[in-house]
Amino acid sequence: MRIAELSRQTGVPVPTIKYYLREGLLPAGELTSPNQARYDDRHVQRLRLVRVLLDIGRLPIATIRHLLVALDEPDPDVHNVLGQALPMAVGGKDSVDPEVVQAARTRVDKLVDERMWMVGRNAPARQAAAEVLAAFEQVGADVGVLLDQYADVAETIAAHDLDFVGRARDAEGMLYYAVVGSILGDTLLAALRRMTQEHESAKKFGIRGDDC
Amino acid sequence: MRIAELSRQTGVPVPTIKYYLREGLLPAGELTSPNQARYDDRHVQRLRLVRVLLDIGRLPIATIRHLLVALDEPDPDVHNVLGQALPMAVGGKDSVDPEVVQAARTRVDKLVDERMWMVGRNAPARQAAAEVLAAFEQVGADVGVLLDQYADVAETIAAHDLDFVGRARDAEGMLYYAVVGSILGDTLLAALRRMTQEHESAKKFGIRGDDC
Asked: How far apart are CA A191 and CA A189, in angstroms?
């Protein structure tokens, strides 16, 4: 199909598609003349993925490019790439004191060791967790008990996530499901969590939003 | 303290503090002369909160202003405000087909009814969940089983979150903990989830990141 048809099928404007092509978020079409390229269903699928990662995952363009490169590689380090997509692992945050982050990192490493999680020493998620722990401390909230409870919950979630990935048809599909499930799953979980928080509040304090 | 001292204590540059004051993220100091104001420890604390919500929570300025107004009000609708802080509830997303979102919304409402969650009919989290479900569908991933598993997990998380809030000293502190815990908690959970995903992958497929 021509670029106009790709635009029609996906609802993405032609100039935006051209921008994604330039940014390497979308592989080039097959050239049929010096000025024209042909696109196929894989472009449609890839374009939809880019849009939801931008819109729902709120990922920066550079992070999406990383993820897509990983999807296309024969032997990708998916965990490392997905870790880099975490909100915090995008460079030093000056909102938290580096010394506080360092102490939090020690705490995270201890948690991983105690739970015997097989997680790379340099996994971005370790640093991301340390930064958010430091942020809790910075605003004066004691997160000790919560950390352990969340770690329990995370173990359950990951088991579900692996089942989800296992429902893909083939190896390529599994990688695709891993990316989609990780990024969109964060948001799904956050939305469900808001609802259950409201429910728990209503039970405990009788605080309610609008009419249930 | 003067604005220079506020800057020193928090590490936030003076021009940035002035910007936050103009944007209503920080309450005005007490005027000591036409050109000078005095700030106190509440400004220090508020400034730290703004920074972590921006940096770690990655919230837009307008959302943070909403949250802070809620924190300052005598009888705030916290759930509604926290729901609006969800990644998706920031206006219609053109990456997902409105009809698909509508169908997903029906599914979310059914889930809430079946689980007898006390959640406002117009809670932003309902729509947020519907949009992310629609996004899963849009990229061809079947999320049916996962949704139910995540709903179970969310119930556990919310119970922990309420315990966390209950550890605050007073009513004002509880509200503060609710905001901090909700926003930073999403990121903490995401980071822990990446680690447990890596661990589960390593167990199941022998896939590992760098040396454990």
From this structure: 5
Q: Do B182 and A194 touch (CB under 8 A)?
A: yes
B34 to chain A nearest CA, in Å?
A: 31
CATH number for the segment(s) B1-84: 1.10.1660.10
Pairing between β-strand B30-33 and β-strand A36-38 as defined by DSSP bridges:
unpaired
Q: Categorize the per-residue pLDDT at B91 as very low, low, confident or very high, splitting at 50, 70 and 90.
A: very low
Q: What does the pLDDT read at residue A84?
A: 66
Instruction: Report the residue from B120, B142, B211 with minimal CB separation from A211.
Output: B120
Per-residue tokens: A2: 């021509």
* CB < 8 Å to A141, chain B: 176-177, 180-181, 184
Closest partner CB to A200 (pick from B146, B158, B182): B158
Q: Give ∠ CA B78-A96-B46 in degrees, rounded to 5.
A: 40
> How confident is the model over B19-37, as pLDDT tens digits?
999 999 999 999 999 889 9
Residues of chain B positioned with their CB less than 8 A from the CB of A121? 210-212
Class of A1-85 in CATH? mainly alpha
For residues A10-36, average pLDDT: 93
What element of type H or E holds B30?
strand B30-33
Please tell me the distance in Å from A84's CA to the nearest CA on chain B. Answer: 10
Interface predicted TM-score (ipTM) of this complex, two decimals:
0.85
What pLDDT was estimated at residue B171?
A: 74
Q: What is the pLDDT of residue B9?
A: 92
- The C-alpha of B44 sits at a distance from chain A's nearest C-alpha, in angstroms, of 10
Cβ pair A83:B194 closer than 8 A: yes
pLDDT tens profile A62-114: 888 888 887 787 776 767 667 766 655 444 566 778 899 999 999 999 999 99
pLDDT over 60 (residue A124): yes
Identify which of A143, A36, A124 has the alpha carbon closest to the alpha carbon of residue A84: A124
For chain B, the structural domain boundaries read 1-84, 86-142, 145-212
pLDDT value for B33? 92
**Cβ-proximal residues to B51 (8 Å cutoff; 6+ apart), any chain:** A94, A95, B10, B12
Contact A146, B164 (CB under 8 A): yes
Please report residues of A whose CB lies closer than 8 A to that of B73: none
- Are B202 and A136 within 8 A, CB to CB? no
